[in-house]
Amino acid sequence: MKYLYSWIKELSNTNLSPQELAQKMTKHAFEVEEVKKIGGKLEGVVVGHVLEVASHPDANRLRVARVDVGTEKLQIVCGAPNLSKGQKVPVALIGTVLPGDFKIKKSKIRGIESCGMICAEDELGLGSDHEGIMVLNENAQIGKNLSDELDLKEDYIIDLDILSNRGHDMMGHVGLVREISAVEGREMDYDYESLNLAEMKAEFEDRDRISVKIENEKLCPRYTGILIEGIKVTESPDWLKKRLKVLGENSINNIVDATNYVMIELGQPMHAFDADKIGNKDGIEIHVRNARKKEKIILLDGTDRELASDDLVIANENEVLALAGVMGGENSRISENTKNILLESANLNSISVRKSRMRHGLKTQSSDRFEKELDPNLVEKAARKAVDLIKEIAGGQEVDLLDVYPNHVEEWKIDLNLDYVDRLLGCEVEEKKVRKILESLKMKVEDQGERVFEVTIPTFRIDLQNQEDLIEEIGRIYGYDHVEPQEMLGVVRTASIDSNVSFEMSLKKFMVGFGFSETYAYSFYSKKDAEIMRIDEAKHFELEHPMNPSQELMRLSLIPGMLNFVRENLKNFSEIRLFEIGREYYRDGDSAVEEKRKLVGAVVLEADKKAETFFEAKGFVSELISKMGIYDFYFQEADGSDSNSPWHPSRSAVIHVGESGETIGRVGEIDLMVLEEYSIKKRVAMLEIDTEKLKELSQGEREFEPIRKYPDVTRDISMLCGSDVRVDDILSSIQGVGGELILDVDLFDIFEIEGENKNSFAFRIIFGSKERTLERKEVDTIMEGIMNELETNLGVEVRK
Amino acid sequence: MLEQKILNIKSEFLGEIENVSDLDVLNDIRVKYLGRKSELGEALKGLKDLSVDEKKKIGPLANEVKNEIASKIDALEKNIKSQASLLKDRIDVTIPGKKKEVGHLHLITQIQSELIDIFSSMGFDVTDGVEIETEEYNFDKLNIPENHPARDAWDTFWIKGKDGERKALRPHTSPMQIHYMESHKPPFRVIAPGKCFRNEATDASHDHTFYQFEALVVGDDVNVGHFKNIAQQFFSMFFKKDVDVRIRPSFFPFTEPSFEFDISCTVCDGKGCSTCGRTGWIEIGGAGMVNQAVFEAAGYEKGRYQGFAWGFGIERIAMMRHKIDDIRLFHGGDLRFIKQF
């Protein structure tokens, strides 16, 4: 909300400078977005008289003017379309520095000398208009400084970030005036109380030239209409135009400007109808009702709108006159011929106005305020202010008034416990200080004894509903700087860290130790991603309003995000190790959600020989799982039931744990066709682990295994086998024969016999016992058994 | 005569051996002084012509000189040889070491980990929650009533679905407060870090996905001063210097009173610089005393407890501490970014 400093000063009589005011507001009330200086003396900008305008010989859009600036006649090149002979215009002379540090120099523009600049409003910092040059009043005195000519005084726009619960009282200048009085600790000068319609109501009690029918009181708690006759529509006086202009409001005519002026001062939007266009001699009949199906209105912005039945409208017996709270209709517009007006001041339901303006994609000064839920009693204050102002600047006389206000909103009371004030703020605030603060905010305070105040809340402070709300008022006006930091005393307890959080943190540290770097991907992906991953789109949660189509679905796999990162990083790196720990979102029926925590890692090597990428990922995942204290895990080819997966069908394995063979994840290469979809040309091996399952399986303390006292015996065995023999089968055979005495078997050499479709393997077997030193003969016997077993059952040719 | 000769030989040797660094030269010297035809050898041959007394005197001297020469030559030989082998071993130690790559934790993880360490050291529990949350926990229980403009302010990602309760990606970490309160009885202190989502356009300082952190302390008489103290302790520890905390009025439906809080600028220590816009303060996040309506929604008796909640964006303090100018880098997956931390 933008406030004009001079206006605030006039209403509040504050002595604070704009900068001081801004500082105090930030500390006690609202954050300051900007304090912007406007007006003030513009040195070197004078009134010029355009004597001639000629076209520029070398540029279609430019023209060459001869301008009389009093002391001399200048040649100036100008691009503004609205320049014409005889105008009085602001001219920045050579050497002038305009706002924004823009220095005017003598220059040649497309070969023509230009000695100064004819200025637009925005160039002078006087407004936002850049449509063309600023055209001055024809009586302006040639050569006079522009600031003197326009009587531009230095002023400031103070832009405050009004908190969302204060729109109802802060969207008028009076709201800020109240805050200033409270912060300065003094009574407010603005006479709010005397703004009322009591006399007028009494006078017109029996008159019935206006009738108002409200269909739903909830949507329109109050409607006040005042008929004023004999006004003269003209331009507004300069002071009024200036104030509206600097606050970004266009001046329309004195009537419309008066309603806007009152809105900006008090925060109550108002509207004026041409009374002769909406009623007749018998009177005016106003209906506040929902729009009928397919009903239409042309709004003041010229747009033709078809209304919805939820739209609240102001109508007469024949037609819709306004989209309530948002914008008036063209049919009842105030024109220069308007003689009589119906002035409307109403209270409308905030939700209804918000829905209407959203439905129609409109946002007006009026809807901005109505959306905030306004005080119905403000209706009367504003109406009174507007009548006075209209009579002052447009003449006329009020002839009837109707105020429909069935449920009068009264002040309410809150009991404030002063001990609670101190206890919640953590500092002692003196009773008289509390009283002063509340009173300066226009509350009434009654001491009930025993440290309790009965506080009466003015109706314009809708946000104050309970003790804590009052404590906030006391705290902020008193100043939170008075609250000293205090040590907390209390129960000492060990911190309990969520087990998923701590487990994931330890997994992450482990991944990093292995050279993997961590990425964070978005939790969404596209329908295309789901298709490539071969996951049914219907299994996903879908967003109602995604940012873009590539983020429509909640991910059911971390792989697509990871593959995107792999592709991008391959532009800069030839070897990549990445991981992410994040969630997948499973739907159970239409509403239940299961969030699965997954670890996904990706490996890309400089070059892939003999499926090195796969084995690196597998070796890593094996180390990871054993590091978590799980030893009974194994890898198995996928059984084909999930052939519909993004994994490489013959270069990936499922990871199982324990006797039950629980699946905890998968490791392997990604299907080359999938990689192609992501434009990745290198082989990518990934690992995917359900971290919650891993966590559960890794629980339990590890028991120390005594270090063996007796020496181990090592034997090597090498063999040739057909390419269909799996290493896993060889290992099981060796373990089967040797039993407990075999401590470990390592595959230490492997190569393919080219052209023979055979592999050569060499294993190192380590024998040992906890109880004794093994005898050579004993080991020999086992070795013989192993060789027999391998030759008979696996058809392996053992090299002897 | 002979005695003088021997001594002359010795001094001649000492002069000659000086500065010798070549094994061949040394070998020539050895032959010259110790060989069969050496001067010293010749001199020793003359010993037999001497008297007994003279023999007694010159004999030992001659031996001594001979041994001394021999040991000097041996020592020098060893020295020269070892010098040579060192020379052969010489490497350029400025050649870079062998590359050993350790991975990098994402910066957000690093900061979350620091937060958890600092807060758990102050006795705060660490809780976690779901990312797809019901409307009830995202809004209703946090005192954000239906149609309240605040629901607009957090333009939320709603999930499509007809049956069951409406769900949305959590727009803040606050639903975790309710879940935690429903299962714990005060007094307690807890932090809840996590991923949050808001449906807003992305630019250098906004992302629709971000990480938030939030702390909640509830007890019988927890007050604003306690909040200031905890916040001060945390930020001083986090920035490793004394940090001041300032609070200003704000509004959140789930706290009353509500605050914005600033910390003294960590670049200029509050003196005013370009980082803090010459104010000496940096805006960090929101805070407030828990609204009694929220306690009620969590099943506590109204007015029974007092507490404060506060939070901030993790990216924000990461960007501040490391001078990162584009928030989109966090979800960009670019190793050139990740590997810097």
How does the SSE layout of this entry go?
The complex is a heterodimer of chains A (800) and B (341).
Chain A: E1 2-4, H1 5-12, H2 18-28, E2 31-38, E3 45-55, E4 63-68, E5 73-78, E6 88-92, E7 97-98, E8 102-103, E9 107-109, E10 112-114, E11 117-118, H3 146-150, E12 155-161, H4 167-170, H5 173-184, H6 198-203, E13 210-214, E14 222-229, H7 238-246, H8 254-266, E15 270-274, H9 275-278, E16 284-290, E17 296-298, E18 304-306, E19 312-315, E20 320-323, E21 327-328, E22 341-347, H10 350-359, H11 365-370, H12 378-394, E23 397-404, E24 412-417, H13 418-425, H14 431-440, E25 444-449, E26 452-457, H15 467-478, H16 499-513, E27 517-518, E28 524-525, H17 527-532, E29 553-554, H18 559-569, E30 576-588, E31 592-604, H19 612-627, E32 633-637, E33 647-657, E34 662-670, H20 672-677, E35 685-690, H21 691-697, E36 713-722, H22 727-738, E37 742-753, E38 758-767, H23 776-794, E39 797-799
Parallel strand pairs in A: 13-16, 27-30
Antiparallel strand pairs in A: 1-12, 2-12, 3-4, 3-6, 4-5, 6-11, 7-8, 9-10, 14-22, 14-23, 15-22, 16-19, 17-18, 19-20, 20-21, 24-26, 25-26, 28-29, 30-31, 31-35, 32-33, 33-34, 34-35, 36-38, 36-39, 37-38
Chain B: H1 2-17, H2 23-34, H3 39-45, H4 52-89, H5 107-121, E1 125-126, E2 132-134, H6 135-138, H7 149-153, E3 167-169, H8 175-183, E4 188-197, E5 209-219, H9 224-239, E6 245-252, E7 255-264, E8 281-290, H10 292-297, E9 306-313, H11 314-322, H12 335-338
Helix pairs in contact in B: 1-4, 2-4
Could you list some keywords that capture this structure?
heterodimer, A: 800 residues, alpha+beta, Phenylalanyl-tRNA Synthetase, Chain B, domain 1, OB fold (Dihydrolipoamide Acetyltransferase, E2P), Phenylalanyl-tRNA Synthetase, Chain B, domain 3, 6 domains, seven-stranded mixed β-sheet, five-stranded antiparallel β-sheet, 23 helices, 39 strands, 28% helix, elongated, B: 341 residues, BirA Bifunctional Protein, domain 2, two-stranded antiparallel ribbon, 19% strand, rod-shaped
